[in-house]
Design brief:
Radius of gyration: 19 Å
Shape: flat
């Protein structure tokens, strides 16, 4: 029972943190985020100075999150066995494929990717 609970908790934690730890299968160009930023800047009537300051904050935060993802992955890898790490990577790959299929399905139907 204890082993089952531990395995279930580990699997749940791994699947929930997959977004934090897994690098994207393909590089993202950030165009969706940029368009959102531009809309926000227009709606708030931001000055060029404000846009520059907020862009700098966004870049710093992106770097911090990348570091956090890498640190989290290293901590998980230190706990898991080689077999468990391999299985977790397979689960991540399945998740990436499912997300890509959903994204492609929306695009083929003309729906936006951001819901």
């Amino acid at each position: 029972m204890k082993n089952t609970l531990l395995a279930t908790t580990l699997l749940l934690t791994a699947s929930l943190s997959a977004g934090l730890m897994a690098a994207p299968a393909e590089p993202r160009d950030g165009s969706m985020h940029q368009r959102g930023f531009e809309r926000m800047a227009e709606e708030l009537s931001l000055t060029d100075e404000q846009k520059a300051q907020l862009s700098q904050i966004r870049e710093e935060e992106r770097a911090r999150f990348q570091t956090l993802r890498e640190e989290s992955k290293a901590r998980f890898d230190a706990v898991l066995t080689a077999e468990q790490r391999q299985k977790m990577e397979q689960l991540h790959e399945q998740r990436r494929e499912q997300m890509q299929e959903r994204r492609e399905g929306r695009l083929s139907r003309g729906e936006p990717c951001n819901r």
